Amino acid sequence: MTVASRFWRLLSPSLCISSPSPPAARNVFNRSIFSISRSPTLITTSFIRIPRTRRSIHQPTPVYDTTVPSICPSCSKPLLSSVPACTKCWTIFSLPGDLSYHHLLGLPYEPNPFVVDIPTLKKHFREAQSVCHPDSWVSKGNDKQQVAEALSARVNHAYQTLLNPLSRAEYILGHNHLPMSESDQVDDMEFMADIMEAREIIEDTEDIDEVTRMMEDTDSRMKQTVKEIESLVEKHSWSELKAAAIRLRYLEGIERAAKQWLDNH
Ligand SMILES: [Zn+2]
């Protein structure tokens, strides 16, 4: 019995909702194991959880590499997105809970997880949603529909998180054990004075030009802060990154308030 066929026998039914064809499964797992030996960094994203009681230290964990096109373990047709859902043979898999949002959407986490190509993110999001949207799995049984719902919700959350620079920075901070909280403050008194002044303008002024100028200034400071965040992630300067992300949160608040003011005037 090959290592790959042993993996297939050990799959948990709750994680692999299909009627797989063993030879096709063997092909994809052989390929996965091959990719482990050539790309050790991928080991962090295990595709299938083998029950702990039956796991052996001699068995490598199969890896689902979401950054390259893969094939369906059941029908061997190419998967149409970064998530393991096949609408050719209606097979769908769960993914490990610790899989990064980047890998979930087929994007690289290294070398800099803050650098996300937005058109690619949007394209991969659309592709993933098109295969795991729960409506498509309604007639395929409760188990499959539940897996689709969970996958679809994760894909949505991952997309929203990576789309916005602030939530992306927060996500990276969380990954590096420095999560942000609502009570986080900025030590930079000059910056805080600017924020208070901007708030006063929004509350007191009736001058559209003044608010427009302030919004342009805020926008420019946000772009500058985003660049700074990119560089801090590159350098793994997590404490400074957190300070910059908190400043970005204040600036986003001002921009939101200014937009609201302009909508109302
Ligand atoms: Zn298939």
Automatic annotation (TrEMBL):
GO cellular-component term (any): mitochondrion
Domain J: 100-175
PROSITE patterns: DNAJ_2
Molecular function via GO: ATPase activator activity; protein-folding chaperone binding
Matching Pfam families: HSCB_C (PF07743)
GO biological process terms held by the UniProt record: [2Fe-2S] cluster assembly; protein complex oligomerization
Signal sequence coordinates: none
Keywords: Chaperone
Family: Belongs to the HscB family.
Designated name of the protein: J domain-containing protein
Native organism: Crucibulum laeve
